[in-house]
Amino acid sequence: MFDSSNGKDQQHPQYNRDRLLVDELLRVIGAPTEYHLVELARLKVRYQGFPGARDLQRDLEKTLLQWQLTEDELYERTRQIHAIGRVYQQSPDGQQEDWS
User: Which Pfam families does the UniProt record give (predicted)?
Assistant: First the structure.
C-alpha cells in the first residue's frame, strides 16, 4: 500500500521501464495488436489509484482515446484474449510476467 498522508506523489519502482512501454503504445498507428491491448490493460491496473506517475497515467488515458476504446471495452477484449490462450510467453532470459 501507499501512504498518501503527506500529499506528495510517489515514484513507482517500475516507472522507468513502464515509461518506455507507454511511449511505444502511444506510437501505435492503426489497430493495436493483442500484445498492445494486454499491456495497456496491465499498466492501467498497475497505476490505478497510485499516488504518482501522473504523466504516465495521463498517457494511458490518451492511448485509450487514440485507440477509440473505453476502459470497459479494453478489459472485455483482454479477458477474451487471455481466455483463448497465453499472451505472454516466458522470455529467453527466464523472466516471467511482470504484474507487480
Answer: DUF3288
Write the single-letter amino acid at 70.
T
CA atoms within 13 A on the CB side of 99: 6
Comparing CA positions, the residue from 54, 73, 60, 53 lying closest to residue 26 is 60
What pLDDT, on the 0 to 100 scale, is given for residue 92? 46
Q: What is the DSSP string of 11-39?
A: --TTHHHHHHHHHHHHT--SSPPHHHHHH
- In this predicted structure, the answer to whether residue 89 has a pLDDT above a threshold of 60 is no
Alpha-carbon distance of 78 to 49, in angstroms, equals 20
CB-count burial class (<10 Å; 0-12, 13-18, 19+) for 95: exposed
Residue 56 to residue 7: CA distance in whole angstroms = 18
